[in-house]
Amino acid sequence: MQINPELTTSDRSFNYGDGLFSTVRVSRGQLQLWPLHLNRLRQGVERLRMPAIDEQQLTAAAEQAITAPEQVLKLLLSRGAGGRGYAAGGISESHLHLSVAAMPDYQGWQQQGIRVGVAELKLGCQPVLAGLKHNNRLEQVMLKAELATTDWDDLLVLDSQGRVTEATAANLFFYANGVWHTPELDQAGVAGVMREHLLAQLQPEQGYYSLAQLQDAEALFLCNALMQVVPVRQLADKVFDLGPVRAVQTGVMD
Asked: Tens digits of per-residue pLDDT, 118-134?
């Protein structure tokens, strides 16, 4: 695995989105939820049939890339550089690119909650790629463009079969009948590391849910590795209770 090699037009990620990435929250100079990030990268590498990663080398490189106590670290793993065409034969070494950025301030969202609309764009269903945070993210680019034309803070996204899947860059949980629920992500969507962390904490029911079922929920929140847990105070015309989400925040947030 080459770390921060010179970028070339033969890079597979540049040409085909052939790779994976992970966005890591750095707090007090430490990589947060790092074992979950590593595990997701490991699973993604296996599913995409990429060369195995040296996790010790990757961890050392990630730690060395930190330049501030509070920031965002992005890891982008490309299959590597190769010749023309889709076939990946002859590529011996993956490329790891590391970059850092300032940590966004989500305190207002975390404390006050956000307003969420429903996206018109639907996610395509592809079980082979579902759950992966692969480098082809054109659907999310289009969703963010759609969001920019609205006055919502975020958008709820359905798949092409009408199933609730995620937000534009976050997973979702909702509370109904005394139980937390979260969408199954075996057809579309990204399985975030904060979602994985909360699966162990909340033991939610996972399934396929319609938009109508969310209208009957008592509480709803979005989550990802950077913003952690953000309550939804309004989804379209529905207003939610923030109380159940406060308890989740108390249990998982710094």
From this structure: 999 999 999 999 999 99
